[in-house]
Amino acid sequence: MNRLERLMSDISSYTEDNPYLQHITEVIDTVRSIVFEPGVSADKSPFLRDYIEIKRYMFAVVLAVAPAALASIYFYGWRALAMIVVSYVAGGIAEVTFTLIRKEEITEGFLVTGILFPLTLPPNTPLWMVAVGIIVGVILGKEVFGGTGYNIFNPALVGRVFLTTTFPVATSSEWLIPMTGGWAGFKQFSVDTVTSATPLGVFANSGTLAPLRDLFFGNIPGCLGESSALLVLAGGIFMILARIIDWRVPVSYLGSVFLYSALGTYLWPNQVAPPVFQLLAGGLLFGAIYMATDPVSSPTTKEAKWVYGVFLGVMTVSIRAFSGYPEGVTYSILLMNMFAPLFDEMVMTFRYGPIQKPYK
Amino acid sequence: MSLLTKKPSFVGGIHPADNKLTRDSEIKDIAPSGTLVIPLSQHIGAPAKPVVEEGDNVKRGQKIGEAQGFVSSPVHASSSGEVTKIGKFRHPSGNEVKGVKIDLDGEDKSVDFKEADPGELSTEEILERIQGAGIVGMGGAAFPTHVKLSPPEEKDIDTLVINGAECEPYLTSDFRLTLEEPEKIIKGTELIADVLEVDKVYFGIEDNKPEAAEEIRSRASGSIEVVELPTKYPQGWEKTLIQALTGREVPVDGLPLDIGVVVQNVATVKAIWDGVRFGVPLTERVVTATGTIRNPGNYRVRIGTRGKELIDQLGGLPEGRTAKLIDGGPMMGDTQPDQSTPVVKSTSGLLALGEEAAVARDSSPCIRCGKCVDVCPANLLPTSIYKSVESGDIEKAEELNTTACCECGSCTYVCPSEIPLVQWIVQGKSEIEKRKE
Questions:
Q1: Which of A48, A54, A359 is opposite residue B413, by nearest beta carbon?
Q2: Could you confirm whether domain A45-347 is CATH 1.10.3430?
Q3: pTM of the model
Q4: Average pLDDT by stretches of 10, chain B with 437 residues
Q5: CB A93 within 8 A of CB A134
Q6: CB–CB of A41 and B251 under 8 A?
Q7: ipTM above 0.85, yes or no
Q8: What is the C-alpha to C-alpha distance for residues A173 and A194, in angstroms, rounded to an integer?
Q9: Could you say which of A242, A252, A270, B40 has the lowest number of CB atoms within 10 Å?
Q10: Which domains does chain B have, with CATH numbers?
């Protein structure tokens, strides 16, 4: 035990005994467990554990999204970082408050929600709105269901939808044009070149397609995290290789978008954009990699993951092409979150039903 | 390995670091000394009834416990000395069972063993000699071997599987035995293949032990098909091994017998040959002593030798480095509260783990990631079983085939939330049992 570790352990045992301070013990223990990962010796077999445990799991997601977060600063200035910080602080207060009320440990899942949420917002979202959104996401998206592990919907997307419906003008009608070249956004706080539409919006209004090269590298208006398809993909590949997320959801989601839009653009060329544009534009990659793969709100079994992904793709392309919204990823994922338990039940009936029958 | 030449395997499983530190360590004898504690129940079935009294002098190989009924097995003294106590002793599995304590005289006198030519014995005589030698499954389950070799009339057995997989990390006792005594294993295999009148004999081994596979392959002259299976835990479980070798699936709540297969562990097969050919009862076995124990290796240890005796002869445990002493391997072994428990017929290893290896972190809520579902070799839903047992819904747990669990611990190994899933499932199994009664 090093000095800091001993100090934290002392503080924790002091607060535990103190009638006024005992409520914050859980908070201290949580910080302690994140930093030092104390373990007790197991009583029963198995005595071995895989390297992936929940803290590494959550940190790996944060690490995977870090390049996209850094890129958002490059494209839109330090204000992007301010949005992330506000999200962490406001959401953290909501999380800790509930921890104190429930007397449970803080769960690491918040580290993920806290960074994913601001990355789904337009770069000029007012900071107070970021705070409101994350608080609503944490409370209505997660805590009311009983906390981490029990929520039906992805908390970050609950916050996002709350903002979209409550403040439609601020969160979906005004976009900024990203800076590129040299140090770009790293040299300034914010960007002020305003435009009215994202590539998906432009297509919906005029049928014009943005150049694929810009979509891939990031020179397009949009939400903070979705600018660069390249960096989002890199994060996804990292998480798949590190066995953090299952490849089935992104592959089936993106695959079904590709196939459906290939067919759709042939049948209804004015409404359905071509497949590669669909894949790279808007929040699809970001959603397919970081949101649809959220273990809590997505299906558990492999087979159900395939079904879930295919339905997500169909929903997303349909909303983009045939509804009033140019973007459909958020709504698709939230809608399919509701069906995730049903898909699992169906798989259980098919896959696990037959083995219940006696042999011969 | 390309997709076309993919080795046969099973669905699920995990790849823990195999830590076979004692791989190259030749089997050495541990001389019996001090006292032995020999449990009268080292097998599944009725415990043996003591046939010696306190104060009696016994010799190695002398029967000290008589089998009670068909599904039972006799127990023999494993060295010579005086019986000083017949009473309750702690078995490595954690239960208190009746046992015989022998203070050794150090002379290791032995009874005369009656040799026989297996070729001239009838099937009944062979089975009698197997039961008489006290042979039980040495891979862990300790089911009396003569029972396994006497399938009911209506079961048509066509396949014999010899289990040399040894998928538990750290353990190397079966591997060394295969490498050092392949002739006995082959002879024993051929013997029981005749008893069972099977058409096909497989020898299943993981592909991290190619030398052992080659030993058997080069000597068996075609009577045994040696199959190297991918190194994956729990490849050595009966049901996964059968699935990999034959493609057949053992039904839930069924036995390999139900699909025409009998499985025997390599150490058991070797003991069968010793028992039938030479009349030597099962009084010793190879144990992998490993982990933080000094001089880790593979040792031929008398049944009844206590942990402390074995560890002391090897030079003891280093101060302050050992957190847990385990009978068996790290995935399925039983924790020992101290060094007083003896080596029994099913003890394949004695493992001492340091603090860093025996870690169990605090558990947090299930995040429904499904990793446990992916790795379960029994095709179960560990997370759903855990939730139903935790909430007391035993009916639901039964519907989820909880009883098909082999307790391999793969689900607990992968769980990122550190939920002791296998322990919940074991609890569910015992509650389902209770409901049936």
A1: A48
A2: yes
A3: 0.85
A4: 59 89 93 93 91 94 93 94 93 90 93 91 94 92 91 90 94 95 94 92 93 91 87 91 89 86 95 95 95 92 94 86 85 89 94 78 85 90 92 89 91 91 93 86
A5: no
A6: no
A7: no
A8: 10
A9: A270
A10: 3-23+130-278 (3.40.50.11540), 371-436 (no CATH)
